[in-house]
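Section 3.1 - Work completed
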Amino acid sequence: QVHLVESGGGLVQAGDSLRVSCATSGMNFIMYVMAWFRQAPGKEREFVAAISWSGKNTYYLDSVKGRFAISRDDAKNTAYLQMNSLKPEDTDVYYCAARKRSYSRKWDEYEHWGQGTQVTVSS
């Protein structure tokens, strides 16, 4: 059974940095595109970043380009999202997702999901 477990969320101040992790199990990690989405109450889940199975290609939401960096460690079956220069508008629940095909920005095209981790940025 596939499991994705996020960790590393928390409460930070504007301008701070935070790294969230997504530990996976029960899947052949190197065959999956890994992505991060975020969602606020009452809003649709929003694409944040994705990384190809090879790690060579990364994709970002325009508003986080230059501030966030997605990466993966195939030896640890773990994906990461490094978030720098955080802003209050980055406050959301962040979800890790896995897709066994080319990358997509559509949340409903991802096969596996974690439970989410709360990131709160105070002004």
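Second construct:
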Amino acid sequence: QLEESGGGLAQAGASLRLSCTASGRTINQYAMAWFRQAPGKEREFVAGLRRMGSNTYYADSVKGRFTISRDNAKNTVYLDMNSLKPEDTAIYYCAAARGLILSSTALARAYDYWGQGTQVTVSS
């Protein structure tokens, strides 16, 4: 089970940290990612973290502003979001994949487990 937290309302230019805590699973055995879905739009990849090592991947729209990281001791994945923009408004989902080839990193269908999502709203 994956559970997200940390969403909320923020002004443009502000920062938020999202957390994804796993229960019943050890996150360092999974590739982890954050996706988001805005109203009327498809779910889109935001950031990913490989199972082994520290390689990270980002959507162009968040590169340089968002950072994904993992704390194995806390069994938690984070998404630090800086310089927020109104277009970042969406429900943010945490996802985990048991086996993930590099070329599938940004594909939602490649992930096996999902959280319920947490709402992020950025006002201008």
